Amino acid sequence: MFKKILIANRGEIACRVIKTAQRMGIATVAIYSDADKKALHVQMADEAVHIGPPPANQSYIVIDKVMEAIKASGAEAVHPGYGFLSENPKFAEALDTAGVAFIGPPKGAIEAMGDKITSKKIAQEAGVSTVPGYMGLIEDADEAVKISTEIGYPVMIKASAGGGGKGMRIAWNDAEAREGFQSSKNEAASSFGDDRIFIEKFVTQPRHIEIQVLCDSHGNGIYLGERECSIQRRNQKVVEEAPSPFLDPETRKAMGEQAVALAQAVGYTSAGTVEFIVDGDKNFYFLEMNTRLQVEHPVTELITGVDLVEQMIRIANGEKLSIAQEDVKLNGWAIENRLYAEDPYRGFLPSIGRLIRYRPPEEEATSERVVRNDTGVYEGGEISMYYDPMIAKLCTWAPTRSDAIEAMRVALDSFEVDGIGHNLPFLSAVMDHPKFVSGDMTTAFIAEEWPDGFDGVELPDAELARIAAACAAMHRVAEIRRTRVSGRMDNHERRVGNHWNVTLQGQSHDLRIAADPEGATVHFDGGDSLRVSGDWVPGMQLATMTVDDEPLILKVGKISGGFRIRTRGADLRVHVRRPRQAELARLMPEKVAADTSKMLLCPMPGLVVNLDVAEGDEVQEGQALCTIEAMKMENILRAERKGVVAKINAGPGDSLAVDDIIMEFE
68 falls in which pLDDT band (50, 70, 90)? Predict the structure, then answer.
């Protein structure tokens, strides 16, 4: 077995590989850029080597620099993680030349299946049903429009060397095909150093289901079930689960056998994933093969008990698979939610900054429930603009799908993140959505259910009443603490009082609290009552409460006269006042927000790539104004209405913060 391996990656996947390697008794080497000097993967590894400036194309994807780190450390093998150099045949070749083992497939398999164009041709030759498309190289935007018209809109424009949603666009007309082609080329060149593009038919109402395969160098190959990856936004997976709630055993077997046959046809070894698009009649079509470990691999590990990283290491060491197909049993259900550094209230645009608070739920593993959090960050660390915005993968497992979903709801409510924008509220909303709960979803789920973007969750009245009761009881505890601190020795209970008014989400509740040593009974004026208990005290930012024998987990922040409460995807301002205070509060005028309608504000921290207009230009609704790049993604900002550009405050190359004024209109 290898004595030392280098992980040619960063973030959560580097940490994930390090954990398995250390469990196997293998020393680990991390690499890091200037931006990652204090990163978690650097702290976890046995040693670390600096490889350059923050941009990935000057550090993590520069083969010569990684090879120098390998030589300096004396590593015998390299695990590439995903992204970066994981599917780069030149890297695999360089390792082979240097006599260093690549913990992944051979160069030929990477070239054959890692390239989206080549892999589709091979699949067609092997008799695998594929989605209609143009597999040749496309020279310019005019040719892209011509091909798109011939295939028939809508079409998917994809980077040949792409992955992770980078370099991918959907076009519904000629204008979008032209624009999407150029943006895809730019993103592909920036992310992968390869700007080749291909186009295929975009199948509407599809499900995205993938098969995990393992193949050794002795001719053995198995599949470990499937993963449902249909919950996607901008072609980027957000929620994954295993198994799929849609497949039957017969379809699973057919897809699995086809995936293994395809892998073995190109001499594949290591872990790999064959992705399919599946229609409502369970017809499946080959999309592509990812010749690496997938982001969502933990859900497969949770339902099979197989450590995929360990298997990759053992296969690279020349060992035979220790498990046969008949040994693979799917046990229970697993769900993964990707925590992204992005602001769901600003169109999911990237968010960077310091993690003022980062407290994941406690990990656990029992026969009834598993909570797992794969992460590459820590409280006080920085989220950089240079890399992918995913900062953690929260996974839960339970014997049934409904129990796994409930475990995920609790875990999301318990996950504390402050200092950056993040998508925890959105993930909670997905977990509660009837379509997701029923398993009836397609890759269009997010676009269909939130067509105008995500602006928070409106909780039902019954849940609001539970929160109101809990907040009233918590406020009473805080008031008693305050009176004790004041030093007065009279009766705290009498001074605090029992009658309160609670307002939240446009509702107002008059209520009375009857407290006792075990908790409090909250009586509403309408006649209902709720029993509340918990161990919350002032200063705690997570309240684990029980309301009428049902758990209620609240993230708690202090505001004037109450709390900022975040739970189940909702972000609430809850005011708890004495009846007279509530009466006066109703008379207060509401603060009017500043008028920014004649300004284009930067929606996220990023770099101005280009300006499409000049001062004095007349612009039309929907017209492109400028392009902002953040976390390897290009974001085109468009005019919301017709107008004339009066002033431009930023130019190409400028770094902007959130709400910086890019341009003003007459």
Answer: very high
